[in-house]
Design brief:
Elements (H helix, E strand, L loop, with lengths): L16 E7 L8 E6 L2 E5 L4 E2 L10 E4 L11 E5 L5 H4 L2 H4 L7 E3 L1 H13 L8 E3 L5 E4 L2 E8 L6 E8 L2 E5 L17 H10 L3 E5 L12 H13 L5 E4 L5 H13 L3 E5 L1 H12 L23 E5 L9 H7 L12 E4 L8 H13 L3 E3 L14 H11 L3 E5 L3 H13 L3 E2 L6 E6 L2 E7 L4 E5 L2 E4 L3 H12 L1 E8 L10 E5 L8 H18 L2 H4 L2 H20 L4 E8 L1
Parallel strand pairs: 3-6, 6-7, 7-8, 12-13, 13-19, 14-16, 14-17, 15-16, 17-18, 19-20, 25-27
Antiparallel strand pairs: 1-2, 1-21, 2-3, 4-5, 5-23, 9-10, 10-11, 11-12, 21-22, 23-24, 25-26
The chain binds zinc ion (2 copies).
């Protein structure tokens, strides 16, 4: 079934709340969800995802394609952002111009959003409204309640959304951390109350639905870091997710307890430290030592915080591993601690980094060696706890790949609740009898190429792949009125290796081939640019495949004078 291009063409029953994910269902990243009733819509989260092996070259950032919303954009009452992770807020400054609607979030998220909007030159245009944790508010037909949960960033909020006959609990990202180190505890009293009041449907985080038990506490992780760092006698460099304020707080405490001073490498760490302090977090975090002063500190008193826990090539940790960081050179018997998980797809990059470090006789400690990382997402027993508290009629798993969402649905069913599977683009009516599929609207992906958002299905990007794989050959012919060559054909190879042939010889052979092809053609072909191009491309392609075994992109320019 072909997806419907515009959401306005979908027949939605009056008085019924509808749910539509445009990103984040069937994938981890790029969350964008909509709730709609009587022609008015609310956006919950507007995130990005990052490129992987399948992404065309030159694309690092990917946003949901929201073209299906163009026809209803006047009816969007607002964008509500649950928390400040990139997969929830990262798309705001890329997509807001297409939506032009107010934004609502708590203070920490607002601070992160404003920084991004400022960098995009949008700060004056986008109304970012700060909401207090636990607040109640109305946006058009939607009654919203913000419920505090714990996660791996300050101010992770679930939303209770009341509209029509329905009460929805939209979890955002969450876990149940009994000792989150920084920020508020989760509001278990309110969760139990909400269960008493009645929740019809939970739309929730599936990330760890395949993982047994509980996700663990930031406080346990702090103990692990203290033990590991306390054992080291030389310099220690730690990398973690910059937005994990609790982890930064723990590292501040560990530095204090182990007699070390902290120095920071990497812009995103500075940004998040600044945001956290400006919004009331990290009050006890020690003052930083400028990297220029590190030479005056013994190695045993240095604790370096560095960006790049996923092996990102431009981040500080990759530069340290290569010995290319301008401000610091790691030395033998230093220790690097990866206080983070490996996001699937980054294994090879990180293995290369571990090798570079161990070749320099630098010790590497990861979460496989010591309890120095905990996940920010609920494992199976936390999901069970939430469902026993809320007792929803139905569960719609989101925020996960298919296997995570399937495992999440199984947990709901095991506890006696209904579960509905959803994929990006599905419009569901949330009725008293459970979610009902209504239609499927277009839900694509946009890649950021420079400053331009391009559909990943765009021809320009598929051509980029062809160029990346096979390179390019250009042929320029200058012909007179009788289609005779006025000069030798110009042949250029871009990204095409010449193999055993000398590059010049290869070009000469190709020029000779063009001349032979031209000599053999009828005047009908010679007088037609199109036929001439086709003929040269066919013969050229066959020859290059035979000589080099590749099929470069070909561009034949015919100039007639
Ligand atoms: Zn998320
Ligand atoms: Zn998150």
């Amino acid at each position: 079934m072909k997806p419907i291009a515009n959401l306005s063409q979908v027949q939605c029953d009056p008085g019924v709340l509808h749910f539509l994910p445009l990103g984040g269902s069937g994938e981890i990243g790029m969350n964008l969800n909509l709730y709609g009733i009587d022609g008015q819509w609310l956006i919950v989260d507007i995130g990005i995802t990052f490129a992987d092996d399948t992404t065309p070259p030159g694309i690092d950032v990917i946003c949901p394609d929201i073209s299906a919303l163009q026809s209803i954009k006047e009816s969007i009452v607002g964008i509500v952002i649950t928390h400040a992770h990139e997969d929830h807020v990262g798309g705001l400054h890329y997509l807001w111009r297409q939506l032009k609607t107010p934004v609502y979030c708590t203070a920490f998220t607002a601070s992160v959003a404003r920084r991004k909007l400022g960098e995009a030159g949008l700060l004056d245009q986008v109304p970012v409204n700060e909401v207090l944790p636990g607040a109640f508010m109305e946006l058009g037909p939607f009654g919203l309640e913000w419920v505090t949960l714990t996660h791996s960033i300050p101010e992770a909020n679930a939303l209770v959304i009341r509209a029509g006959e329905q009460t929805i609990f939209h979890t955002g990202d969450w876990k149940l951390d009994p000792d989150p180190v920084e920020g508020a505890h989760y509001d278990d009293r309110r969760l139990l109350e909400l269960g008493e009041l009645g929740i019809d449907c939970v739309v929730g985080d599936s990330t760890n639905a395949t993982v047994d038990g509980w996700s663990g506490s930031e406080a346990e992780c702090q103990k692990g870091l203290l033990e590991v760092i306390g054992q080291q006698t030389n310099r220690v460099a730690v990398t973690c997710f910059s937005s994990n304020t609790a982890r930064l707080s723990s590292l501040g405490d560990v530095a204090h307890e182990t007699g070390r001073r902290i120095s920071v490498l990497g812009r995103s760490l500075f940004n998040y430290l600044q945001t956290a302090k400006a919004t009331g977090y990290l009050r006890n975090f020690p003052p930083l030592v400028p990297t220029t002063d590190l030479d005056y500190l013994p190695r045993s008193e240095q604790l370096i915080l560095a960006t790049g826990s996923q092996g990102e090539p431009r981040a500080a940790m990759a530069k340290l591993a290569k010995g290319e960081h301008p401000d610091l050179l790691l030395e033998p018997d230093d220790t690097v601690v990866f206080s983070s998980k490996v996001i699937p797809g980054n294994e090879k990059k990180l293995d290369r980094l571990y090798d570079l470090l161990s070749n320099k006789k630098i010790h590497v400690i990861t979460e496989r060696d010591a309890p120095i990382h905990v996940s920010g997402h609920p494992c199976r027993d936390e999901l069970r706890w939430l469902y026993r508290a809320l007792r929803p009629s139905f569960v719609i798993p989101v925020h996960g790949e298919d296997r995570h969402m399937a495992a999440h649905a199984d947990i709901a069913v095991e506890l006696g609740f209904g579960a509905s599977r959803v994929k990006n683009g599905d419009v569901l009516a949330l009725t008293a009898d459970g979610p009902k599929f209504v239609a499927c609207v277009y839900a694509g992906r946009l890649g950021l190429s420079g400053t331009v958002l391009v559909p990943l299905s765009d021809r320009a990007l598929s051509e980029r792949r062809v160029l990346a794989v096979g390179g390019m050959v250009t042929v320029t012919l200058v012909l007179d009125k009788k289609a005779r060559l006025m000069a030798a054909p110009q042949v250029q190879l871009i990204g095409v290796p010449s193999g055993e042939l000398d590059h010049k010889v290869l070009i000469q052979n190709l020029v000779a081939l063009v001349e032979d092809v031209l000599a053999d053609q009828s005047s009908r072909v010679l007088q037609s640019d199109e036929l001439l191009r086709e003929t040269i491309q066919r013969d050229f392609g066959a020859m290059l495949r035979r000589w080099l075994g590749i099929k470069p992109r070909q561009l034949v320019n015919v100039v007639r004078v």
